């Protein structure tokens, strides 16, 4: 049982970076085309929509990894406890915030997928610039998306730090400190891309 849980947690960590993290960055970059106007965003969105084997790619590279990561993540939230003897005050806060942002991110992703994918599949909406423009025209939804994006980017960047530690890439205090600054830069960069896109839609 211990070996199985160790394997699942390692897989959980890996999927959070590859492929989920890569997809997150790609998704934010596509959304960032909104900065250059509706036509630029629509071209980028339609290019992604028309990729060969898109459904297969989405199922096996996006949806199944996200479902596994989310289910195990919720389990970890309920069983995990901050370990003050192992981690310092700052890392314990990061550990705690990782769990909180995991739940917020899950709620945000479910809602975002419903609005931008499920309803489109039902034929009630079309995936284009005007769809996001209409969604974000509501101030409540705009700030919901801001919180969702920041939560998601923090969860990814902080999870990247944990990935580097758990996979033995950063094992010394110095390397972990460097990784802290590096993942902070990642957080700031991807958050900027995501938030700037939101403002572009409004």
Automatic annotation (TrEMBL):
**Keywords (A to Z) from UniProt:** Heme, Iron, Membrane, Metal-binding, Transmembrane, Transmembrane helix
Query: What Pfam families does the entry give?
Result: Sdh_cyt
Q: Which domain of life is it from?
A: Bacteria
- Location(s) in or outside the cell: Membrane
Residues binding heme, per UniProt: 27, 69, 112, 155
Transmembrane region(s)? 12-35, 55-81, 93-114, 142-166, 178-199
Can you say what this protein is called? Succinate dehydrogenase
Question: Native species of this protein?
Answer: Gracilibacillus thailandensis
């Amino acid at each position: 049982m211990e070996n199985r849980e160790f394997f699942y947690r390692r897989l959980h960590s890996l999927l959070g970076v590859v492929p989920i993290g890569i997809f997150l960055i790609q998704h934010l970059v596509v959304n960032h085309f909104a900065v250059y106007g509706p036509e630029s965003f629509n071209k980028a969105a339609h290019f992604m929509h028309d990729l060969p084997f898109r459904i297969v790619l989405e199922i096996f590279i996006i949806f199944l990894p996200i479902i596994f990561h989310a289910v195990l993540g919720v389990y970890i939230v309920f069983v995990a406890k901050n370990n003050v003897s192992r981690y310092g005050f700052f890392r314990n806060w990061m550990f705690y915030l990782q769990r909180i942002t995991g739940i917020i991110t899950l709620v945000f992703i479910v809602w975002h997928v419903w609005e931008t994918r499920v309803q489109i599949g039902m034929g009630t909406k079309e995936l284009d610039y005007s769809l996001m423009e209409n969604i974000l025209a509501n101030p409540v939804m705009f700030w919901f998306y801001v919180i969702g994006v920041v939560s998601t980017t923090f969860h990814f960047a902080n999870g990247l730090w944990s990935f580097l530690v758990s996979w033995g890439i950063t094992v010394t205090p110095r390397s972990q400190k460097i990784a802290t600054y590096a993942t902070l830069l990642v957080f700031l960069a991807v958050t900027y891309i995501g938030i700037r896109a939101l403002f572009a839609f409004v």
